[in-house]
Amino acid sequence: MRQEFQTRPEHDDTLELLSLDEPFEPFALSTSDTPRVSIVIPVHGKFAYTIACLRSLAKHGASAASETIVVDDASPDDSAAMLSRVTGLRLLCNEENLGFVGSCNAGAAAARGEFLLFLNNDTQVTSGWLDALLQCFEDHPDCGIAGSRLVYPDGRLQEAGGLVFADGSSWNIGRFEPRDAAAFRYRRETDYVSGAALMIRREVFQRIGGFDARYTPAYYEDTDLAFAVRKLGLHVFYEPASTVIHCEGISAGTDLSTGMKRHQRPNQAKFVDKWATELAMQPPTGTPLEQAVCWRRRGRVLVVDVMTPEPSRDSGSLRLCAILRILGEQGWSVVFHPDDGRASSNEINALGELGCEVLCKPEVTDLPGWLRRHGHALHAVMLCRHTVAGQYADLVRRHAPQAKLLFDTVDLHFLREQRAAELSGNAAMLRQAESSRRSELALIQQADTSFVVSLHEQALLKRLLPSVQVELLSNIHVLHGCDRPHGERRDLVFIGGFGHPPNSDAVRWIANEILPCMRQSMPDLCIHVLGDMPDAARRELATPGVVFHGRVAELGPWLDSCLASLAPLRFGAGVKGKINMAMSYGVPVIATPVAIEGMHLQNGVDVLVAEDACDFASAVRRLQADATLWQQLSAHGMDNVNNHFSARAAATILRKTLD
């Protein structure tokens, strides 16, 4: 009520709405004889809105081929005559008024695309809107319908998917809320999406029989379509990356007793009669909205890490993003909180594509407060790294006693710190390692289940704490495959950010000892260092043959052209994402014994092991000279990733733990 009666500008300038007052001049729409998407727009008068909608389509093109079909439903004005002057538009004219349902069905019957996209004429689309809906179908083979994020011209959110209650009544999720709030920026399954911007495969629409004519002229036809799609075993998704501005009420008004709106209540009764069995499984009237939004999910799972994951930054981020995706695929409502409270717009959108809601500033300023309000609804809480788990484990037990407490070690910090202390001989570092050891072991005892990433760490914890539940949840990688043969490759890569102590030590070893040793017999050899690197360190370690590229957007081009990847780590713990990543592209790896620990790798079969600088140089010479060895290591490395570091293996462990 407060938002509804607040004074606000009629239009939000950041939406870049096209003017309704612009004089009409003929223009052209993108079209195709073999469209992938057929955009169907029913119209009945309101020419100014229709032409603004079409201009927005012309302005915001898509990578997918499309056609635009306008169905003029016996408009009382000269809409048809004017629209006939728009190049590329397919114009259908109803001889008599068929209403929204009849006009949409007529447009669908004339469509040629694989997908139908029903769009109201009182809408304007935005950049990327169409491709985002298609991406939802690409990411979810069981997607039956995908709908856009609808916003009002004044910038407020109009709909982030829709709820249907047991009595057939419905509600637009997020109505009147800030449109960019993180709570409405993640893809998720929903009860229905508005027909104002709805995508469905043409074959599925035909199989269902189109919009049900019992709802003629309009209202509840989109909700009915969603229920029919689910009856086929498919799902309905809200896609926040697709934003459409909707002047709700322009085409039908808002008065439930007059005009088109007068059909809303009678059609609700028809809907209840048709779907009585299915409605019995919907949330009862009065169910809190937060609970109703998650009604189709198995429960809520909260995941907390130090910061928002960024897959191009480190292997831990890559692994966490894969875990979040798997949890969503297994039916959980997933919520992520970065302990530093920060998440950029791009990071929120990236996790949103995985179906994950982000709790961050300014909406969520502290996790303890959120846990007090929402802890009762959590099925499980996963705390990543001992620094995070140490802060929140007791709070989770207090505010979510029913939730499973999961501790994701990421790697055993105390083991890494202990090895670094032994390498340096630093007594202070050794004391820090012992402190971390006590902290981590206490948290592992407190948790219901702890995750480690290597068999070595799992065996170590079983010796130290025989009664605890420890599961192997290792790195998770997609198998990219090897595209270029041995003869087309040269140079070496090292993958890893300088901020991680084992990586910074490795880069120094490369610059100071390993590369000089290699260049004695291979003077033109270069090592490309890919990862965040401070300017001061670049200047300090600058040497011929070492090229610092910083963090790169895509590792693929580098891994498709290099001879081998180096992992000269002298201390550390866990399994090494740099090794998994290289092997996923079929790139042989030369690594220290510490680097391959617990990774199911055998020297000379899956990997080449080197203990000192001369060993690394010798291994590179072997790979340059022996194409058969190179091919063997490439193939076995890919097998290793597929067998031990796939999403399939991780999904099995998560299902076992959470079920």
Automatic annotation (TrEMBL):
User: What are the GO MF terms of this UniProt record?
Assistant: transferase activity
Show where the Glycosyltransferase 2-like domain sits.
Answer: 38-208
Q: Which superkingdom, per the lineage?
A: Bacteria
The protein's name in its UniProt record: Glycosyltransferase
**Aminoacyl-tRNA synthetase among keywords:** no
Q: Which UniProt keywords apply?
A: Transferase
Tell me where the transmembrane regions lie: none
Q: Does the keyword Transferase belong to this entry?
A: yes
